[in-house]
UniProtKB/TrEMBL annotation:
Lineage: Eukaryota, Viridiplantae, Chlorophyta, core chlorophytes, Chlorophyceae
Rhodanese domain span: 75-210
UniProt-listed PROSITE patterns: RHODANESE_3 (PS50206)
One Gene Ontology cellular component: chloroplast
Entry protein name: Rhodanese domain-containing protein
Length: 241
């Protein structure tokens, strides 16, 4: 579950109807297939599915932006930066100011599709399998201030859209799949993905923020605001006499 304070930081909360919305999203996802997402009837991780997704992302003008460009966007305070990695990874360190909306979550429920997915992971020795977060697009939508706001996604690696010598068919990553999901759900008109992901951000020596540090900063801001309020309250009280 996403930490409540992250949504408060963005000035919005998900609202009391999140549970009912998530149930509807889960039902829709299950109709889409066991992975929780399909691309033209194909698995998103299949060669055909990825090629369809890659071409759709290019046609949708999804851009790959450098960590430096992300830094500029953060400094201007105009973009929404979304970390799509698991919550534990986000807490360990993230781009300062980024909001955490995991694209994948642990498998929930025991429908036939869910059981099949669990078995598939178990065959590869993975006990805690994952599935697409059914409310990902809606959670991001709640954080977007307006349709024209730039939404920058990042995962651990970033990915490649345009073929090159090293990746002749591009390189699919979590953030690119997440970008496709947002496109399909009509969330945001300006979606970008950070090149190299969080790994490149760290390797470039850029500042990182940990969840504990972020909470402390929020606490200091609230404390400063309270002191300001008390001071003005004292001024008005004195004026009354």
């Amino acid at each position: 579950m996403l930490a409540q304070q992250r949504y408060h930081q963005a000035g919005r909360c998900l609202g009391s109807n999140r549970r009912s919305r998530t149930v509807l999203c889960v039902q829709a996802r299950e109709r889409s297939g066991p992975s929780g997402l399909h691309v033209g009837g194909q698995s998103p991780t299949s060669p055909k599915g990825w090629e369809t997704m890659r071409l759709a992302l290019i046609a949708g003008n999804v851009k790959m932006v450098s960590p430096q460009e992300v830094q500029f966007a953060c400094d201007r305070g105009q973009a929404l930066v979304v970390d799509v990695r698991p919550e534990a990874d986000y807490d360990a360190g993230h781009v300062p100011g980024a909001q955490n909306v995991p694209f994948y979550q642990p498998i929930t429920g025991w429908s036939a599709m869910k059981v099949a997915r669990r078995v598939g992971y178990a065959m590869f020795g993975v006990i805690n399998g994952t599935e697409v977060n059914p409310s990902f697009a809606q959670d991001v939508k709640q954080l977007v201030q307006d349709a024209e706001q730039q939404v920058i996604l990042y995962c651990s690696q970033g990915g490649v859209l345009e073929p090159n010598d090293n990746y002749r068919k591009g390189w699919q990553t979590r953030s690119l799949i997440a970008a496709y999901d947002l496109m399909q759900e009509g969330v945001g008109n300006s979606i970008s993905v950070m090149k190299g992901g969080y790994t490149e951000w760290v390797n470039a020596g850029r500042c990182v923020q940990q969840q504990q540090e972020q909470q402390q900063q929020q606490g200091h801001a609230m404390e400063a605001g309270m002191h300001f309020f008390i001071a003005w309250q004292g001024v008005f009280s004195a004026a009354a006499y």
